[in-house]
Amino acid sequence: MLNDLIGVRRRRKFSQSQVANAIGINRSGISRFESDIEGSNPTLDTILRYAQAVGASVHLHVEPVERVEQIEARNRRAHWRASTAAAPSVRTDPEKKSYRVLESQGAAWVTAEGSAG
What we know:
elongated, 434 Repressor (Amino-terminal Domain), mainly alpha, 2 domains, single chain
């Protein structure tokens, strides 16, 4: 996000001093903000004021943790399906930490330690 904001400032040819004046801080504060120097840790208010000064908008999106976990699980399953398509004789399941050995008479889940499940 910070790089995007800096890019907007540069494309619009605003100097750090111009942005600093618009925000009400000194130019060295803008320099620290843009350099992401350890300890600069800008507040959300500073980020939003910087964005407004350079003519950008910042959109924040809040998701409950459960929703994020659902999305990550769906992505893992999609990755698992894609990875198993290339190797049909052995299928892995990262959530179960196991793999499935497909045999002509049947199939069994086998854990990473080698025990059948």
